[in-house]
Amino acid sequence: MSRDHEDGTVGKALAVLDQVAAFGHPVRFGEILAQSAFPKPTLYRFVQTLTNQGMLAYNPDRQTYSPGVRLVRLAHAAWAQSTLAPIARPHLDALSAEVGETVHLAQLDNAQVLYLEKRNAVQPVQMFSQAGKVGPAYCTGVGKVMLAYTEDAQLNRIIAQQSFHQFTPKTLTSAESLMEELDAIVARGYGFDDEEHEPGIICIAVPILTEKGRPLGALSVTSTTDRQTLKGMEKLAPLLQQTARDIAYDAANWHIRDEDS
Amino acid sequence: MSRDHEDGTVGKALAVLDQVAAFGHPVRFGEILAQSAFPKPTLYRFVQTLTNQGMLAYNPDRQTYSPGVRLVRLAHAAWAQSTLAPIARPHLDALSAEVGETVHLAQLDNAQVLYLEKRNAVQPVQMFSQAGKVGPAYCTGVGKVMLAYTEDAQLNRIIAQQSFHQFTPKTLTSAESLMEELDAIVARGYGFDDEEHEPGIICIAVPILTEKGRPLGALSVTSTTDRQTLKGMEKLAPLLQQTARDIAYDAANWHIRDEDS
DNA sequence: AAACCTAGTTTCAACTATTGAAACAGCAGC
DNA sequence: GCTGCTGTTTCAATAGTTGAAACTAGGTTT
């Protein structure tokens, strides 16, 4: 589950893919090599294979590599049949309309939080520009509530991978304080982000759980300390929990989907 | 370049990934096995590795696999740094507003057309739900114009992979007729889809070319035979070509981008 | 309850692909 | 022409992949 911990050739190749994606801009072979643990010819072959496969795109004019279009197609499939995202959409719309604050839908991707949807209350959706973003699990509302409901074995692996970087004075910076926080979350059924990631930004979050208590994802409402307090946001808990239950219910019962034209 | 033609373990694993994505719904191991050329344990290991890597998601409750969330993250990167999609966005908005018909932006993915963006003139964008779709290259406007400007070696490989399935009476069903059509497209600088893919649906398409004449993608305006004729749509050619040139210019000059919050 | 499936998982020796040091090619600049 | 840099190919040692067969876990039939 630890992604880089030996999955053979495939794992290594995908690590290279991640690496290229992480640059955030098209890169030359040399740049990848400089950051890579692989020797030159090995890396070269990986890059070639990935390019062949359409997972990387090569620009011959500039001699640069970037994540390939095949990923967009695969992500479309991932998106369409993710039980969560398409099902949650109408619920998010309703929630967003009601609370008038930023709403996030997230899932755990390895040890990170991956945002699937965002509602800004004002304007409509612009998918790729915000879905697909990642964030830390240990200092975001959605991250913590998902961790709170993760089984021990997996939780330990995930915690071992957290950086515990101190973003703000309020960031939890140790596994111990995080574990306490997770217990508190389970006890009350929802969690907060009390300016732990960004100063002035607070949020309340709830997990979306299967019947068996496994976290499918999480839901959050974000606001600022100017406009809101944690106490004030706590009033939203019942509404959030109900929305989470509704999404979980739909996810459990409405599994088969097909494409729209 | 032919994707499945031997790229070692990595290629095989990615073929499995495609296969799972192609189902369009979460599948059990047995279902994949039934469609797979790989023996049981081999396939099993691929599926395990991909799941480990987050490229597939496993639902333990239902024992099903589906494309994983990691793809969404990678696609986000692909999207953000695709030279084409983010740059083209404002141009598509302008074009869409002006013509009042459906506008498509597409790229070649292996031998297929992959739609990156769509503007319906009416409502705003809903990304994942339409971007990421694929279509045939030999009988769509965008597909044909991109092929028309593809160098011979690659073109031959792509044509060899076309199904030439006859969607409508007007579909081109042979490599020869397609090649003639491609010559005609280069001669006039733009192409049509004359009800070749769907009856009643027509379109005009132009390539987006680099300085060196390599096709980055294509742009099209689609309409129906009720409302429009090919002759009528031909009037849009100069506008489309100008938009394509503008996009190509921006793509060449504005290469570095970073994330938005 | 025993016997019997079926779907999923593990084992292990044969085999084949991967690996990376080294050597090579292409190309800009001096 | 030489020099330095980036990207590409070679090839023998190595390490990972392969898949028949055997096994386990659940459920179903006799």
TrEMBL record, chains A, B:
<dbReference type="InterPro" id="IPR014757">
    <property type="entry name" value="Tscrpt_reg_IclR_C"/>
</dbReference>
<dbReference type="InterPro" id="IPR036388">
    <property type="entry name" value="WH-like_DNA-bd_sf"/>
</dbReference>
<feature type="domain" description="HTH iclR-type">
    <location>
        <begin position="7"/>
        <end position="69"/>
    </location>
</feature>
<dbReference type="InterPro" id="IPR036390">
    <property type="entry name" value="WH_DNA-bd_sf"/>
</dbReference>
<dbReference type="InterPro" id="IPR029016">
    <property type="entry name" value="GAF-like_dom_sf"/>
</dbReference>
<feature type="domain" description="IclR-ED">
    <location>
        <begin position="70"/>
        <end position="253"/>
    </location>
</feature>
<dbReference type="GO" id="GO:0003677">
    <property type="term" value="F:DNA binding"/>
</dbReference>
<dbReference type="InterPro" id="IPR050707">
    <property type="entry name" value="HTH_MetabolicPath_Reg"/>
</dbReference>
<keyword id="KW-0238">DNA-binding</keyword>
<dbReference type="GO" id="GO:0045892">
    <property type="term" value="P:negative regulation of DNA-templated transcription"/>
</dbReference>
<dbReference type="InterPro" id="IPR005471">
    <property type="entry name" value="Tscrpt_reg_IclR_N"/>
</dbReference>
<keyword id="KW-0804">Transcription</keyword>
<dbReference type="GO" id="GO:0003700">
    <property type="term" value="F:DNA-binding transcription factor activity"/>
</dbReference>
<keyword id="KW-0805">Transcription regulation</keyword>
<dbReference type="Pfam" id="PF01614">
    <property type="entry name" value="IclR_C"/>
</dbReference>
<dbReference type="Pfam" id="PF09339">
    <property type="entry name" value="HTH_IclR"/>
</dbReference>
<protein>
    <submittedName>
        <fullName>DNA-binding IclR family transcriptional regulator</fullName>
    </submittedName>
</protein>
